[in-house]
Amino acid sequence: MRFDVITLFPELIAPFTQAGIVRRAFDSGQVVLRLWNPRDFAEGNYRRVDDRPFGGGPGMVMMAEPLARCLRAVRADRGEEGGEQAPVVLFSPIGDTLRHQAVEGWAASSGAVLICGRYEGIDQRFIDRYVTHQISLGDFVLSGGEIAALALIDAVARLQPGVLNDEGSHQFDSFNPAVDGLLDCPHYTRPEAWEGESAPAALMSGHHAQIERWRRDQRLALTQRHRPELIAAARASGLLDRADESFLAQQAPGDRA
Fold it and tell me: Which residue from 161, 157, 142, 173 is spatially nearest to 18, judged by alpha carbons?
């Protein structure tokens, strides 16, 4: 899997490959990351990559030509000039919100070219000609696409085999089909009592079925309180059994399990 990131600030992304647990994905070569600066493909002494917007207005717009030259260099380096080409992703407020299902899809792919916009945006002609996917992290605006690119790469890298200490741990993450798309349950560790509050008795019981029922109930309660639409989706898909429905029926708004 290979991600090529086109960014004016490669120094923001480079340290990511050497930090945290996802470093294993890069060290093992499971995920290859290449950084490209469109300024290297700009013309003139100042290597200009932006200009004032037509029609006036605040800010600057990234020019199409330096980005296009950079993308052509990426294609050549990937050996895609005459064959199948990797998707080109732009991080943009109009894109589809990144969710677990999409992350799983990217994790099973061969990678993509990620475009990190800056300033007021990118010349629309480049977007129309080259961009195949647009992704958003949510209804807010960042200074550039680098944080969004890192979010996607991190989410994808941690799903690669062997990256996490426990091979199956990500299967119990929030939104995962293994937990029927619900939110994850709370977690506790030593000491058993901390500042006068004890860990839940069910987790200390050693009774596997009781522990799993407690965790399921917690997932249901948290999801009903914070993301009720996920409960509705699980119900519509037939993923809630009688015990689940009985527990939910007993939960008044704001209740804790």
Answer: 157
